[in-house]
Each structure stands twice: as structure tokens, then as C-alpha cells.
Amino acid sequence: MMSDVILHNRYYTVEDYFALSEEGIRTELENGKLFMSPSPVPNHAKIGRNLIWQLENYLQNKKCELFYETDIELFEGEDTIYCPDIIVVCDPSKIADRCIVGAPDFIIEIGSFGTIKNDLGKKRLAYERAGVKEYWVIRNPYWVHCYLLNEEGKYSESVYRNEVAVKVQSLEGLTIDFSHLQKI
């Protein structure tokens, strides 16, 4: 969750980022610039918990792994670290000691007023360039932007509003039930 507050006016490396993370400072790193990352508000956390519950149930006995608010370094050598709300990784070689390295298979961001512009803009472009197969931005429980990577390496977008269920294209047989979220 990227805010517009930049910490200090200097260039930060991935190593600087992880040093701050060890101190418990919530940030994201984008091209050497450090941004504060506020804690989720209760409604955001409820939506995240519901999505995680559905994904955990689906992923039982499958090779893919689910991560919540885990750092990802999409491109080695670029000083950018994002911390999406929900990540699914099906290639165990991408799971390193301190972060996910490379493109996850599926990412969900639960947008807020302060993050939605970046979620739909810079992050979407970075995830597309990295090859993230599917990326969702949930603006609220009733509005979901779904981006699916096509054969040309570009995202095609589908927007769902007030849908009860939305199929996850990159995880065969998974449909996310939004009926529970609409009660939040």
C-alpha cells in the first residue's frame, strides 16, 4: 500500500529497505524511493481475511503457496520492493529467505483511497512487465479490476461490479465468492 509520503530525500537500495523492515518500519521501495505503508484499516483486514480463507481452502494439497503482506522483488538489480496484500506463488524457486524473487502467479491488492491510484497505475505496469499472470485490485467488495496476462505479455482487463463470484483464471477451478464480502 503505497502512500505519497517519501521518507527522506535520498536513494534507498534493497539492502536499506530490508534493514528498515527489520526495525518494524512498514514501507515499500520504488526505484530507490521509500514510501510509508500504513497498516490496513479494519474493513481492509476483514476483506483480506475472507480472501485468504478462500485461497487457503483451495490451495490445500496443491503445489502453490499463499502469502499475506510479503515482500516481492520483481526484478533483481532494480531497487523496488512491493508488499502486496495477497500473493500466490506456484514456483518454489521464487521463495527466498527474505522475500519472493520474481513474478508471483497471482496477486491481489485491496485498494484504499490512498493507494488505489498506484495499485491501478504503477504497480499494474510493474506486475505486467514482470509477467505476473493475474492481478486483481479490489476497490471495495463490489468493484474488482482483474488483469490477465495475454500471450503478448500485456494485461487484458475485466471489471466486475456487484458480482457474487469471480473466476480466477490463473488457478484452475477457483472462483472467489464475494457474497460474504458484500456483507462487510
For this structure, the CATH topology is tt1808, chain A
Give the total of beta strands.
12
Radius of gyration: 16 Å
Helix content estimate: 10-25%
Sheet bearing the most strands, described?
A: 6 strands, mixed
Number of DSSP helical runs: 4
Strand content: 25-35%
Query: Which structural class do you get from the secondary structure elements?
Result: alpha+beta
When the domains are counted, the total is 1
Q: Indicate the CATH architecture.
A: Alpha-Beta Complex
Could you explain how this protein is built, in words?
The structure is a single chain. The protein is α+β, with helices and mostly antiparallel strands. The protein is built from four helices and twelve strands, in the order αββαβββββααβββββ. The chain has helices spanning 14-22, 42-59, 116-120, 122-130, and strands at residues 27-30, 33-36, 65-68, 72-73, 86-89, 100-101, 106-110, 134-140, 143-149, 155-161, 165-167, 175-177.
